[in-house]
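Project standup — Tuesday

K.O.: blocked on the structure for the chain from last sprint. Re-posting the sequence here as requested.
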Amino acid sequence: MKRYFLIFFFFAVSFSSFARTLRLQCVADLAIRQHKASFSNDFVETNLGKAPVLSFHGIHYIGGPREVASILVLDFDLTLLKSKLPEKATLYLRGKNDLSKMKLVSVSTVSSPWVEGGGLGNGPRENGAGATAHWASYRQQRWISNDPQSELIDVSFGLGNSLWQFENVRHLDNNWI
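H.V.: unblocked you, prediction finished:
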């Protein structure tokens, strides 16, 4: 079941000390997709950075016949948060297609810098051409610099000093979640 998201991401952060909500803009985004090639046991990695529409495939694909994993990676401009202590944060996504079957979402910080990439929808062909599941910057920088086998999962979802949370999806009007 494919999910497509238009790039209408924003992050709302609330503060109780002065009851104000700030809207943070997404400044970089990419969809990382990794799957076993149909012609070999090698993994094919894609980078959809700067793409006008990001494809998202849920976790029900992991462990399937082609072992597909897909993750959206978003970066927000945090300058509005300088010297503030947020009480609550909400991530909003708008789907191009029907999102009514989406029930659960996991969100994590990524504790390593990464490169957005060029949005071609296929594997990066040049060094430094964007993040993949195995590279923070393709063939130039691993997710953990002193670990030649590190992957994105090593700096997200509770590993590598990252924070994570999963929540039930709240469906809003006009295909927003």
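K.O.: great, moving the ticket to review. Residues 1-10, 60-66 have pLDDT under 50 and may be disordered. The CA atoms of residues 107 and 165 lie 5 Å apart.
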